[in-house]
């Protein structure tokens, strides 16, 4: 069984430049947007897997071509994983940006970092498998 953590949950700590947005059909009608490189969000959890979901915006918004958002995911001692959003003509919601490998049951720390400024990183929610001893 997995647990969903909305982007507005206080267990997610934001640093850098983030703004609140969102609407239907995003989870709980909310998202956080990071328009600047280096902005990050961190999340501590006790469990065995974690995934990150967001919204992928169109590459051509209001006749203005923008590049895909690039984000990086650093979990515990693992090497960072980079995700480049696909180039889409319309928005895609609940898009999986990252999934961890299977983890030892225990405390883990995930850092999500916006890497570029050509597009906004839209963070919608996290999903994790809690510890079996919970």
Descriptive account of the structure:
The structure is a single chain. The protein is mainly β and 134 residues long. The chain is 0% helix and 54% strand. The mean pLDDT is 91. It is globular. The strands form two sheets. Strands 1, 2, 3, 4, 5, 8, 9, 10, 11 and 12 form a ten-stranded antiparallel sheet that branches.
| Quaternary assembly | single chain
Fraction of residues in H or I helices: under 10%
Class of secondary structure makeup: mainly beta
Rg from alpha-carbon coordinates: 15 Å
Taking all residues together, what is the mean pLDDT?
Answer: 91
In angstroms, what separates the terminal alpha carbons? 12 Å
Task: Present the secondary structure layout.
Blueprint: E1 3-6, E2 12-15, E3 19-21, E4 31-34, E5 40-56, E6 60-61, E7 64-65, E8 70-75, E9 81-84, E10 92-99, E11 106-114, E12 121-130
Antiparallel strand pairs: 1-12, 2-5, 3-4, 4-12, 5-10, 5-11, 5-12, 6-7, 8-9, 8-11
What would the keywords be for this entry?
mainly beta; ten-stranded antiparallel β-sheet; two-stranded antiparallel ribbon; globular; 134 residues
Summarize it.
The chain has 134 residues and is an all-beta fold. It has no helices and twelve strands. The chain is globular, with a radius of gyration of 15 Å.
């Amino acid at each position: 069984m997995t647990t969903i953590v909305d982007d507005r949950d206080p267990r997610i700590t934001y640093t850098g430049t983030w703004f609140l947005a969102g609407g239907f059909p995003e989870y709980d009608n909310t998202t956080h947007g990071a328009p600047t490189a280096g902005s990050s969000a961190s999340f501590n959890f006790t469990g065995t897997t974690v995934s990150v979901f967001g919204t992928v915006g169109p590459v051509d918004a209001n006749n203005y071509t923008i590049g895909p958002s690039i984000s990086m995911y650093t979990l515990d001692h693992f090497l960072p994983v980079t995700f480049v959003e696909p180039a889409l003509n319309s928005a895609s919601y609940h898009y999986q940006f990252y999934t961890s490998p299977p983890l030892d049951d225990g405390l883990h720390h995930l850092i999500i970092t916006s890497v570029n400024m050509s597009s906004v990183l839209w963070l919608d929610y996290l999903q994790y498998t809690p510890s079996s001893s919970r």
